[in-house]
Amino acid sequence: MDVGPLVGDLAVGGISGWCAGYFIKKVAKVVAFILGGYTMSLYLLARQGIITIHGDKLESLFSSFLSRSSSIVTTIGLIGAGAVPGFYIGWRSG
């Protein structure tokens, strides 16, 4: 059995997973900072009585989003098997 192509697929998956994990973590930090500032400004405006936040509508919006996103099923091949640990290492190093 020739393991050369298997090792190549795992290496490509690992490298691409690392790149994706590193990039996504950097983008996630920026997005979290922006969303945090936006959320804080909304709560500040609500506290001052300028706007009204409807918590029940927000809860139903997030619960429907989570139910849709949890029903997505993906298949992982050899490249994906290498990408998962690579993504984790990239996320940790980012």
List keywords for this structure.
single chain, mainly alpha, 81% helix
Helix-strand layout with pairing:
Elements: H1 4-47, H2 55-70, H3 78-93
Description:
The protein has 94 residues and is mainly α. The chain has a domain at 22-68. It is 81% helix and 0% strand. The chain is built from three helices and no strands. It is elongated. It starts with a helix and ends with a helix. The mean pLDDT is 78.
Structural class: mainly alpha
Mean pLDDT: 78
> What is the CA-atom radius of gyration, in angstroms?
20 Å
> Helicity level, as a percent range?
over 70%
Number of helices: 3
Question: How would you sum up the major sheet?
Answer: none
Overall shape: it is elongated
Number of strands: 0
Give the helices and strands as they follow along the chain: HHH
Distance between the termini: 37 Å
Low confidence ranges: none
The fraction of residues in strands falls at under 5%
Can you summarize this structure?
The protein is mainly alpha-helical and 94 residues long. It is 81% helix and 0% strand.
